[in-house]
Amino acid sequence: xxxxxxxxxxxxxxxxxxxxxxxxxxxxxxxxxxxxxxxxxxxxxxxxxxxxxxxxxxxxxxxxxxxxxxxxxxxxxxxxxxxxxxxxxxxxxxxxxxxxxxxxxxxxxxxxxxxxxxxxxxxxxxxxxxxxxxxxxxxxxxxxxxxxxxxxxxxxxxxxxxxxxxxxxxxxxxxxxxxxxxxxxxxxxxxxxxxxxxxxxxxxxxxxxxxxxxxxxxxxxxxxxxxxxxxxxxxxxxxxxxxxxxxxxxxxxxxxxxxxxxxxxxxxxxxxxxxxxxxxxxxxxxxxxxxxxxxxxxxxxxxxxxxxxxxxxxxxxxxxxxxxxxxxxxx
Length: 331
Description:
By secondary structure, this protein is an alpha/beta fold. The protein folds into 2 domains: about 1-260, TIM Barrel; about 265-330, no CATH class. It is built from 13 helices and 12 strands. The chain has a 7-stranded parallel beta sheet. A 3-stranded mixed beta sheet has the order 11-10-12, with helices on one face. A two-stranded antiparallel ribbon has the order 7-9.
C-alpha cells in the first residue's frame, strides 16, 4: 500500500520573524487560512479516492509555523484531523506538521501528542549560527538541537529541513549542517536550495550586488554530496527543491529552482560512480547493468553523462537488470 500526504496549507501571517528568504506578504495576502470545517470537508472528500487507489495518507499541516499560530485555532485543526484518523484508520495513518525550533516546547508537544501527531518537521535551515543570524531566523543551532531532542523524546518522527546558498552560506557549512542532522538522528530530511524572490530581503541584497547564491553547478554538486551522506546514514530525503509554482517563477530573481533538481543530483552520483569504476576496471568499452528505473539517470539529462564520459574516453551500453543499482563490466 502506497503512502502520501494530504496537505493543508496554514499561512502564519502573525509570525514575529521576517527571514531574509521569506515572501511573507505574498503568502499572507494570497492564502486563505483554512477552518476546521474546511479540513473536515477536504478529508471527507479524499477518503474514498485514497481507498480506491489503495493508498494511505498522513494529514500534513504545512505552510509556516504550525505551533506558532493562535493556540485555539491550532487545536481546532488538530481536532478535525484527529477525528478522521479515528474515523478512517485504514485511510489516514497519522498527522504531521512543520514548525520552527523556537516554537517547540514541552507544553506544545503535549498538545500535539494528545491529538495523535505522528511527525514534526523543523525548519532548521542551517546549523551555522552566523548564517542563521545573517538571515534573521531568530533562533540558533542550539535551539534546533534542543527542539529535535524533545521531538524524539516524545516519540514523534523527526523531520529536519535545510536550505543551501543562503546569505553568508558556504558549501562546507551545508555539509556540517547535514552532519549535525545525522547526529540528531533525523527520520526524514528536506533540502531546499535558496530561491531569491522579489520582495524579500535576499532580493534586496541580490539587486544591490551584496549577495549572490550558489550557482546551479555548485548546487548540483553539493546536493549530490548531501544525498550520499543521508543515504549512507539511511535517512530518506523526502524532498529536494521547491514544488513547481507559477508564483516562484514570476518572482524569482536568482538562486536555484529546477523541477528535476533531484534527478539531476542523482544523475551526478551515477556519473561519479561510473567514472570511478571504469577507471578501476580499465579499458574504454563497458556494459552497464541497472534497473530500468535508473536508465534516465545513468544517461543524464540531454545525455550529459554519456557525453561527459565519451569525452574522457569511455563508452558504454546499458543492459536492464531488475533490482540492480549499478554493475559495470569491461568489454
